[in-house]
Write a structure and sequence with these properties.
Nuclear Transport Factor 2, Chain: A, UPF0225 protein Daes_0912, NTF2-like_dom_sf, 4 strands, 162 residues, alpha+beta, YchJ-like, four-stranded antiparallel β-sheet, YchJ-like_M
C-alpha cells in the first residue's frame, strides 16, 4: 500500500523522502533535506534528524527534547515559502518554511528560516531562526453593522468601532 509523503510534495513517500531517511541516497537539495526532516518528525525517525545535522549543530542537539516534541505534536502540514540557493550545485542554502502542528488540541505554526550546508555529497541542517508572521487574532471579527459588544445597543461602527 502506498502513502503520500508527509512533506506535502504530492509524491508517494517511498519515492520522495523515504530514500533520504533510510540512507539509500542523499537529499539532492536543501529543500529536499528540509522536507525529509519534516517527514522524519511526522514518522518519528529521530535518528535521521540527528544524522542530518551539521557537526556544529550537534552541540545543541538534545535527543530527549526532540523526542518529546515529535511525540507530543500532531503534525498537520508543511509549507515551503521560499528558498535561496541550496541547489544541486550549491554549497549553502536557506529554506523558509512553516510547519503546522497541534499539541493538546491547540493548533500552532512553527515558521523558520533554516540554513543548510553541503558536506561532501550530503546536505546538512546548520541552524534556523524563527520568523514571525502577522499577529493572529483568535476572537471572532465583529461586523460593522452588528450590535456593539459593550452593550450600548448601538451598532459597532457607531460605538467602539469608531
Amino acid at each position: 500500500m502506498t502513502k503520500p509523503c508527509p512533506c506535502g510534495s504530492g509524491k508517494e513517500h517511498v519515492e520522495c523522502c523515504r530514500p533520504y531517511i533510510s540512507g539509500e541516497k542523499p537529499a539532492p537539495t536543501a529543500e529536499a533535506l528540509m522536507r525529509s526532516r519534516y517527514s522524519a518528525y511526522v514518522l518519528k525517525e529521530l535518528d535521521y534528524l540527528k544524522q542530518s545535522l551539521a557537526p556544529e549543530a550537534l552541540k545543541d542537539h538534545d535527543d530527549t527534547s526532540v523526542r518529546e516534541w515529535a511525540d507530543s505534536a500532531q503534525w498537520l502540514g508543511l509549507e515551503i515559502h521560499e528558498t535561496w540557493g541550496g541547489g544541486q550545485e550549491d554549497d549553502a542554502g536557506i529554506v523558509e518554511f512553516s510547519a503546522r502542528y497541534a499539541i493538546d488540541g491547540e493548533e500552532l505554526t512553527h515558521r523558520e528560516r533554516s540554513q543548510f550546508k553541503r558536506i561532501g555529497d550530503h546536505w546538512r541542517y546548520l541552524d534556523g531562526n524563527m520568523v514571525s508572521g502577522p499577529p493572529i487574532k483568535k476572537e471572532p471579527k465583529i461586523g460593522r453593522n452588528e450590535p456593539c459588544p459593550c452593550g450600548s445597543g448601538k451598532k459597532y461602527k457607531k460605538c467602539c468601532g469608531k
